[in-house]
Amino acid sequence: MLSVLPGIISVFGITIVAGAIAYIGDRVGHQVGRKRMTLFGLRPKYTSTIVAVATGMLIALTVTLIALFASNQVRTAFFRLGQLNAQINSLQAQALAQQQELDTTRNANFIVAKGALVAPGVVIDMTRPPDEQMRAFSQFFDDTVRTVNATAARVGLQPDRNRSSDPRVRAQLLDILRAVHDHYVVPGEGSAPILFLPLAPQNLFRSERITFSLVPWPDKKLYSNGEEVASIDVEGGRAVAAPDYALLASRATDALAKRGLPYPFFASPPSGFDPARFQAAMAQLGRVRGHFRLVARSEGDLYPHSGQFVLSVNLEPRG
Questions:
Q1: Among positive and negative, which fits the CA dihedral 128, 130, 132, 134?
Q2: Side-chain half-sphere of 251: how many Cα atoms within 13 Å?
Q3: Where in the sequence is the domain holding 241, given as residue range(s)?
Q4: From CA 299, how far away is CA 228, in angstroms rounded?
Q5: For residue 127, which of 97, 118, 285, 292 sits 20 to 30 Å off, Cα-Cα?
Q6: Are 48 and 116 part of one and the same domain?
Q7: Phi and psi for 304 in degrees, rounded to 5?
Q8: pLDDT tens-digit readout, 13-66
Q9: How many domains does the chain have?
Q10: Whether the model pTM is above 0.70
């Protein structure tokens, strides 16, 4: 509020001065009209008009001079506006160039994407005694640290200095095991083992410290060998088009995700359709007529710890 006070005072001052000049001009014009005075031999009514116009010009000139005297910003706007615009354009160009350079630098230094798998996972039976779980989990943590530090040395990241023997780290590992036990283990019922995957918690750039989070997935069977994962309807006598392939792949991905396949494995080759089976289904579709389904089925029993998925593709009659 205090920062705008000088501006408010200036506005009031200019208004008062303008009003005073307008009043003087009105009185002069009035006297000129009453006494029928003339200027430069003109008729009185033209003289009165000249006085009124001169008064208005005087008001504008006075207000402008006051503003120029009172404000450095006004003087800049009047006399240096072109130079100021040129400076603004130059600064904007510099800022854009610096931002592009920063983006290029960060992209060049980009090492690990958020959510990427940074080391192999481990399966832990949560029904075993707590001390056995902790030993296995601690060994897994130390193995993961060694793996990610070897990666860090190759790609320019700082190593992880944590060890499971550190009391603070041990307490964190115990908290993770307890939270997973409370969330997934149902007393009196059989519970699936838990797959822990070490994932990058954020994007990592060169010279940053490598880090990971231990994310749990119930390691239950997702699909049996030959079980249908997804399908689309197709017509015989034509080749499978790119939209058909994309639709089948999208439906298969959605189905696998809903069943509980860890998302890092969707981007891990050779996950996906069996190329030979898919090509065979495409060739078969071109030779037949009628209504069919293109069906993706699991090749082998599929668990989260499988680490990848391979789907056969078969052409089947539409029932």
A1: positive
A2: 15
A3: 228-317
A4: 10
A5: 118
A6: no
A7: -55, -35
A8: 667 766 777 777 666 666 666 666 666 666 666 666 777 777 777 777 777 777
A9: 3
A10: no
